[in-house]
Design brief:
131 residues, mainly alpha, three-stranded antiparallel sheet, 5 helices
Length: 131
């Protein structure tokens, strides 16, 4: 069985579309927002005044996700209430989104899938034949 996780695939295929992909990727950011804009034009309302990113508590812990933080430069597992550490709901940059970029990402996903399926079917058939 093969699994094509859509958001990981989109991130992989779209990295060259952003000057700083790591700076815009993340929950509530890219490439998700551009894809949603392409799928449902006019449905996404971009708020440029909201603060994005993780909020760390006072002290020696630096939150990197709702399930991780850094302590003395080393990332540890630290589960937090998502609303406490990500008040806007977004760690990625939604202001970089565009419908045109979303259309390009979707095109790349479809092209990848069209190449992937025959290769996977051949692998699956060869496996059943014992090759």
């Amino acid at each position: 069985m093969a699994v094509l996780y859509p958001w990981r695939l989109a991130s992989h295929l779209a990295g060259d579309l952003y000057p700083d992909a790591r700076g815009v990727y993340g929950h509530g950011g890219e490439p998700t927002i551009s894809i949603m804009m392409a799928l449902m034009p006019g449905a996404v309302d971009i708020h440029t005044d909201a603060t994005r990113g993780y909020v760390s508590p006072d002290g020696p812990f630096s939150v990197v996700s709702y399930r991780g933080a850094r302590f003395d430069g080393f990332e540890i597992g630290l589960f937090s209430e998502p609303a406490d550490v990500l008040p806007s709901g977004a760690s990625g940059d939604w202001t970089a989104a565009s419908e045109e970029r979303g259309q390009e990402i979707l095109r790349r996903i479809v092209d990848y899938t069209v190449r992937f399926l025959p290769a996977y079917l051949k692998l699956s058939q060869d496996s059943r034949r014992g090759r």
